[in-house]
Each structure stands twice: as C-alpha cells, then as structure tokens.
Amino acid sequence: xxxxxxxxxxxxxxxxxxxxxxxxxxxxxxxxxxxxxxxxxxxxxxxxxxxxxxxxxxxxxxxxxxxxxxxxxxxxxxxxxxxxxxxxxxxxxxxxxxxxxxxxxxxxxxxxxxxxxxxxxxxxxxxxxxxxxxxxxxxxxxxxxxxxxxxxxxxxxxxxxxxxxxxxxxxxxxxxxxxxxxxxxxxxxxxxxxxxxxxxxxxxxxxxxxxxxxxxxxxxxxxxxxxxxxxxxxxxxxxxxxxxxxxxxxxx
Length: 252
Known about the structure:
globular, alpha+beta
C-alpha cells in the first residue's frame, strides 16, 4: 500500500492505493491529476480568493452564464439540496451588510472530490481510498476482498474512535463542530443546532453524502427523521448528551 498527502482547498488531502498501481508512473500521474482537479475547483469556487468566479459572481462582476459550466452544475445541486432539506441547507449565507451571499462550499468539496476520483477509477486493478478533509471515497474492485475500514471520530473526544465502518465501494462524510467550530447553521433560522454533536452518513457518492450529513446536522433534533427519508446506505448520529442513533436500526 502507498499513501500520498498534500494540502488544497484549505484542507488536507490524502490517498491510499493498493493493488497493481501504487507507486509507479500511472499511480503518480493519477494522483497529480486528482490534485489538479481539486486546485481547479478551488480557483473557481473558493470564497477566500477574490479572483475566483464565485467571488466575482458575488460582486456582480459576472453572471452565472459567464462562469464555467461547472458553476451552473454546483448551483443546481445546491438548490436541489435546499429543496430536499426544507430549507435547512443553503448555498447562501448572510453577508456583512445583511444581504445574502453565495457560498456553495457545502456542495463543492464532495462534488470536487467525486469529479477528481475519476482519475483513480481509471487505474486498472487498483483499490483506492481518497480522503478530502476527513470525508472519504473508497473503492475495492473485488467485493470479496477486505474492505477499507473507516474510523469515525468521537465528537466529544477527537482522539477516540466511536465506530469503524467497512466500505467496499462508496463514500463517508461527517458533519459537526469538533474541528471548525459552529460553522453549520440551520439556514431557516441562522442558529447553530445544539442538541446534536455529529452526523456521519454512508452513501454512494460523496457529493450527496456530504450534503446529507450537513443538512441532517442543520436539522438538529429532526435529523433522524429527515435522514430516514433519504436514499443513504447508513448513518450514525451522536448527540450532545453522548447517546447515539444508528440508521438503519440494528436488528433485534
């Protein structure tokens, strides 16, 4: 097994490869292509870069039609997520002047990672686990071989693991306040949920898994009921009082 690590989009990005191509020319080229895709996404979508298309769109210097086509795609995903979450998730946030500012960060990370992972899928006979800021995309070609084992961090003790999830092919995303503080709010109220500590969702793609984890967290005490309506594989909710909820519930 070979591991690669870099930093982009204000987050650490790491890759584990096992199989036929791990430390050869094709593996290194695929890793370089992944990072190039993520850097390209940062140039378009970063809200910290004044020259990004999103920043220029917010300043009124561009229209959506004048932006790269991926902007329209990401904005459509954001509007869909807002509708599906009954407004708890939003790609807009209050600006310093009180006006709503476009911020698709809650969509971009998962979407960009899914797009970048196409370079890894092209590696013959090679399994991969791509970690973008703690959210992961995993693949094992042989469903009978050992899966990737993903540790879920305990939100009350970042040095501890609260669960381990085996993944053959899919994505894992966690939303919470442990590392970035109260950065997730219910877009309908502007308030940070207080009852919930973290939400981990397992699904088919990181784009939708990450959105669902964020939207569930934003839903606070209604997170469990909302997640049961979503086409996910599984979810683990950790509450501030230390109790947990698993979806689907374990069989008796």
